[in-house]
Amino acid sequence: MAEDDPPSAGGSTVPGPFNFQTQVISTSPVKSNIGQRRGHRYKHSSISTQHQIFQEPPQRPPPVLPASLPVPTVREAWKSMSRDQRVRLYWSLCHLAVASWLFFISEGSLAMMALSHLVFFDAGSAAVCVAVDVLGNFEVWRRSSVRHPFGLERAEVLAGFAMSIFLLFGGFDLVSHNLKHWLETKGGHEPHHEHAHERVSAGEVDWAAFAAITSTAISAYGLKNHARIARIMRVSWLAKLPTHFSNIFHFLTVFFSSLLLLLPLLSIKSYIWLDRTLCAAIAASMFLFGAKLAMAQAMMLLMSYGGIGGNEGVSSVMRDIEAEPGVARIEDAQFWQVHYGLCMANLKICVAKGCDEGAISKLRSRICTLIQNRLGEGYGRGTSLRWEVTLQTSVDATF
User: Fold this and answer.
1) Domains of the chain, residue spans
2) What is the pLDDT of residues 242-254, one digit of tens each?
3) What are the boundaries of the region Disordered (predicted)?
């Protein structure tokens, strides 16, 4: 090693064979040119303008629909509720409590147990009405977006479809209970429960049935329960009743509750017979109208139309459109319902030669009015549907 070499005679050390002195090249940070385009400094020069190498990208128009809208949380929904909405929420909870009370005191009466199923359906529909009213405070409920093209209003149809399935299964449950009690009386088998006036003494008022009538009336007038469902569940023989009770579900609850008020006035034998008959009638009505409601809501979810008149109503409108002056033929037509308050009609019409823009504009207006008046029951009515009509026209090329 150089350090171990002996000093020379003159007192100086012998230099080593290598020089390892550190040398600083630069103290500034190193800049990387990776990803940078060469020649960008000449973007606005005469060379770039002459050869058009660097061009500005075309300006994109702003999107018509937002990609998505924020869905409110439970806390945001609670803060947005008005005083009236809070009262409606509290009453829906009270309605649910009445339904639970009817179910737990229905021991000894099949008809009261069946009535509790109807009241449960009313209470669930009341809760859906409150949720719809609260979500209407937010923009995401009605405004369209890329993620939800029709807002969140179709969620109400889905909730109603779930309630209609509850009606169907409730009807099956009541049939099984009624059949079980009927089989217990056959073959000399003693029933597990004696069917007597166990809930209400003879001659007394059945306060449970009275509570069912009261809760249904308050929900019908206060919450306007089933108001949207009534648009697809029209029953002609109920049209003469008041508006709130022309709904089949309100009518069923009030009607069977009124009959239950008469049961304590009957003898034990008549009580048992009428109790089973009412249970069977409620089960049949729940199954019948639940199936009809489920079919109507399923058609909405599948983007089809089964509203006023069904296929016959649409066919009648198509014939009237073809009879319009200037219409040569209808090439394509699609009618479908989005939710309870919105339907859409997409038409492709071939017009006769010689129709100018003014004539086509008037034809478009007449067709929109015709569809709205015939299938939506016209404007200015509380139960009318809003129709959005898109019309595509082409000139007839045949001679």
Assistant:
1) 73-184+201-300, 308-393
2) 565 667 788 888 8
3) 1-20
